[in-house]
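Entry 14. Ran structure prediction on the chain below.
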Amino acid sequence: MLLSVIIPVYNSDRTIGRLVEHVLETLDKRTLEIILVNDNSRDESERVCIQLAQRFTQVKFISLRRNFGEFNAVMCGLNHATGEYCVMIDDDFQNPPSEILKLVAAAQTNEYDVVYSFYSQKQHSLFRNLGSMMVNRLTTWLLEKPKDLYLSSFKLISKPVVEEIIKYKGPYPYIDGLIFRVTRNVGRVQVSHNKREEGRSGYTLRKLTSLFLTILFGYSLKPLRLLTGIGLVFMGISSLSALLDITLLLVDAQFFILNSSLILLIFLSGMILTALGVVGEYIGRIYMAQSGLPQYIEKKVVND
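Output, structure tokens:
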């Protein structure tokens, strides 16, 4: 088995059938498997996917018991994949399946562990583009990835890296964060990007916030170190403020002393509460991981 194409499915009963057929027409059926992971869709996606698995021997189907999120669905697919390379592609048809060949060629020619796609012109909404830009800057800081590397969801991962990634069993997987824990041998390939044919994007403010929190508190200690640095800075400011108050007291400037002390007290109280919140977020995620919160739960498997 050369290639595993993993497609997380959510409310895509109108497009998933055509997408699977297009992948089968584009790639070599003899060295291909398609893994469909239904993330508890609310439409007829499960029925359509079961029909596809019954119709094509190359199609595996896994249905999750509830909605776990895209990264969890991808992790489920990676755990079922057997290919030398795994390609993740969205179910919205914005990435033409023919572009998979570019990712495979780049991986084989340059011996990359991972190949990301990037677009000359993205067809996403303004909100999603802004969210992607913010996530890109955040991951550049936290994961120390190259600044010019766009972390797209359409990417290829080699089998040795996949085997390391699926060792993570926690409830908050972030695929790109796990990739950069394993390797820095990463390439990029320009591909075309189409407009969405059906439905609307599931990229919401809530999901963007959840992604930010996962990246911040699940894959780096830099937020804690940043708070430590800020705390040290404000300890210095407090010492200087105390010296200033003593100096002003000598010239009887009591009103300014009261104001400066009160403002500093309020600001430092806010900093303390923020620091407690950050530490609490880390502790909460550790607790959820240790409590056995599942990464995903499979309800039905076809053709595995």
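The chain has two domains: 3-202+294-302, 222-290. Will compare against last week's run tomorrow.
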